[in-house]
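Standup notes
- DV: blocked on the single-chain target, sequence here:
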Amino acid sequence: MRSGAAENSTGVARVLADQARWLAGVTAERLRQRHPELEPAADAEGRRRSERTVGEHVLRLADALTLGTPELFQDYAAWARSVAVREGAPPEWVAAALRCLDEVVGEELPDALAEPARSCLSAALAELPRLPLEPPTCLDDAGPLRAEAEAYLGALLAGRREEAVALVHAAVARGVPVRDLYLRVFQPVQREVGRLWQLGRCSVAHEHYCTAATQLVISTLYEHVFAAGRVGRTLVATCVGGELHELGIRMVSDFFEMEGWDTWYLGASTPTDAVAKMLAERQPDVFAISATMSQQVPAVRELVAAARDTTDHRRTRILVGGYPFNRAPDLWQRMHVDGCAPDARAAVDLAQRLLGAPGAEPGAA
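- DV (later): unblocked, structure below
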């Protein structure tokens, strides 16, 4: 992106974030006047809910412009459409709201600021009809363990935690590698639970239960996770966001443990100064950061800056991962980090490539 275009995108992102509530009110009112048939509820609470939803559209548009990742806003628009339908709105409601927002931005902002926002909105509106109303199942990622993943998901959704534990341990007894259970059962099942919530087929309580149950199941496998001989390398791992989103980086940490690394897993929402203190003390070979939403990327930048200030850059490699980086493949390069990995196995492979054989100098190949 040219510097002038980048500055315009950043400028309009600030304006959108600062004026989100006002823009949402104007846009929601225009939407009601132009498409009254699309309003799921015309009472005062329904109007407030519509304004809150449009306000979220504005904020996520600002995120996409700040990061230079229009594809993240396209994904958000598809997600928002699924959620709107779940809550009783017609499928056309989100597209109509985005068209009204596009008009309001064009009328209220100077052309130089409006252009980046309208370009991002236009791309999302063009892509939205091509995307399915219902996102496809995540269980396809289970591959040869599809049956085990389906059985595990069924046990969790039914609240049968002991059955889920038994299923996993039966698979281990049959010789299924623990790594495969992580990647082919736990990971796709957690994503599938999120999809089911998005479609209104399970509640937030179900989502919380499934996450907590999987954390428990994983803890019963630690005799396998910690069995490898030590290789003299250290990982510090953390994620930004709430505890519901920490499972992915926990699995990354466990994969490094299975390779013989000493790991310091800091969980979710650890204050930056506490992370920095740990990095200064441990001077790890790898610092891994995970984010699950685009609005968390600025927090990733903050952690990267803290790592650069407190570690020896010749020793410590910084890796990032999570949904925003998977969806926008070049985003990591703007974070001034050493690499990005889509899952736990890829993170270990990347770290080993960056560092060379255990015991060698960092960067040796």
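- Follow-up: Residues 359-365 have pLDDT under 50 and may be disordered.
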